[in-house]
Amino acid sequence: MSKSAQKRIVVVLSTALAAWTATRIAGSFLNEPEERGVQDDVKEALLQGTFSVAFTLLSSWVIRNVLSKRWDA
User: Fold this and answer.
1) If you ran DSSP here, which 8-state letter would residue 1 be given?
2) Distance separating alpha carbons of residues 55 and 67, to the nearest angstrom
3) Taking phi first (over 0 means left), then psi (-120 to 50 degrees means alpha), and beta for anything else, what does residue 25 get?
4) ∠ at Cα 29 (19, 45), nearest 5°?
5) CB pairs under 8 A, 24+ apart, for 64-68?
6) For the whole prediction, is pTM greater than 0.70?
7) Maximum CA pair distance of the chain?
8) Average of per-residue pLDDT across 51-57
9) Angle between helices 38-62 and 3-29 in degrees, nearest 10
10) Using CB atoms within 10 A of its CB, is residue 13 exposed (0-12), middle (13-18) or buried (19+)?
11) What is the pLDDT of residues 5-37, one digit of tens each?
C-alpha cells in the first residue's frame, strides 16, 4: 500500500471515528443548557480534540501494523 493511500485512509478513518465518538459521548459529559456559554464550548472543543488525536494515532497504528502487513504479503 502506498504512503499516500495510507495517509488518506488514516485521515478519513480518524476523522470519522472522532466525529462519531465525540457526538455520542458529548451528551454524557456536557449538560445542554438553554444557553450555551464559553465553558460549554471549551469542554466540547477539548472533547473533540482529544478524540481526534486518539483516533488519529489509533488509525495510523492500524494502517501501519495491520493492513500494511496484509497487503504486503
Assistant:
1) -
2) 16
3) alpha
4) 50
5) 64/6, 67/1, 67/9, 68/1, 68/6
6) no
7) 56
8) 86
9) 140
10) middle
11) 888 888 888 888 877 877 777 767 666 666 777
Residue 48 C-alpha cell reads as 473533540
Say whether pLDDT at 72 is over 80.
no
pLDDT at residue 12 in the model: 85
pLDDT at 29: 65
- Dist. CA 30–CA 46, nearest whole Å: 11
Query: What is the residue whose three cell numbers read 469542554?
Result: 43
| Kind and range of the H or E run holding 56 | helix 38-62
d(CA 43, CA 35): 15
DSSP codes, 13-55: HHHHHHHHHHHHHHHHH----SS--HHHHHHHHHHHHHHHHHH
